[in-house]
Amino acid sequence: MKKTLFALTAFAAALLITSCQDGGYGDMDHVSAETAYGNNEITEQNVVTLADVEKAFPEFNNSSYRGCSKAIEQDMKLRLRVTANDIGGNIYNYIACEDATSNDGKSVLIYVYSGGLFSYLPVGQEILVDLKGLSVGTNGNQQAISTPYMTSSGNTYPKNMPFWVWQKHFRIMGYNPEAVKTQEFTVDQFKNEVSKNIANLAGRVVTIKNAEITDADGEKKWAPKSDLASTNDFNVERAIVGLPKSTIFISTSTSAKFSNDVMPAGKVDITALVVRYGNKCQLTLRTANDVKPAVNR
């Protein structure tokens, strides 16, 4: 009996050691993701850029306020690199990606009706997306890829792609987090860029240097439910000193993992995803670590 108990204990310990060796972050997870998610039959043929897609489909032009193409019939693929995901609970049912073919920073949102996207689509993950059968378009001038979604008023735009559809339309490629570079701005530079060329920022991850959050006093939190503007809201908006809150603000969900963290006071460097809605620039933090003490004060 003692020998049997010892053998079972040793076996359990071996399983525990094996499961903990990788820690959930290393190559084994990536290898598993390659086989567990996506469609490995997608080939790197007819790969185009986001700019090419914009030329081919007027609904995808950033001058279009809201629209959605029919299901794409052409054999077109995009090689994209993930720049933002739902790991912090502040991004919901979508990822942001930059064009890994053109490497010009042009970016797009991909809407998938599923949580836990970060588990197989970490920042830096490159994917091959098969556009045939999907739709492209805009909502509030923000370019997106998904399936058509119709509102109660009859407006249609890309949103809520079913998980099973998504799995057929992408392939996991290389993983290169070092390739993800944010575009840096001072507060004044960012203000001017939003005013002159918000289309260029939409969908990108940017860093605003030496910024200061207006409400940060060492006690106020990012997004407690008590700070919601109305019962119909889910996000709390925070202003940045020197930027007009009417058009540029940090938007944090009350469901974010850091919603009840205290906002850092003083000069900080803010890294955030730019989500465009008309002339408004919504800055979305991926995690609490996207706001750090300013490097050059």
Give me a quick take on this structure.
By secondary structure, this protein is of the alpha+beta class.
What structural class is derived from the secondary structure elements? Answer: alpha+beta
User: Can you count the helices?
Assistant: 5
CATH topology of the largest domain: OB fold (Dihydrolipoamide Acetyltransferase, E2P)
Poorly predicted sequence stretches spanning 5 or more consecutive residues: 1-28
CATH class of the largest domain: Mainly Beta
What is the number of independent domains? 2
Name the average pLDDT: 90
Rounded to the nearest angstrom, the distance between the terminal CA atoms is: 68 Å
Question: Topology of this structure?
Answer:
Elements: H1 2-21, H2 27-36, E1 47-48, H3 50-56, E2 66-68, E3 77-84, E4 94-99, E5 107-113, E6 125-130, E7 135-139, E8 142-146, E9 148-150, E10 156-158, E11 161-162, H4 163-168, E12 170-175, E13 183-185, H5 187-201, E14 205-211, E15 235-238, E16 248-253, E17 268-277, E18 280-284, E19 291-293
Parallel strand pairs: 1-3, 5-8, 5-11, 13-14, 16-18
Antiparallel strand pairs: 2-7, 3-4, 3-6, 4-5, 6-12, 7-8, 9-10, 14-17, 15-16, 17-18, 17-19
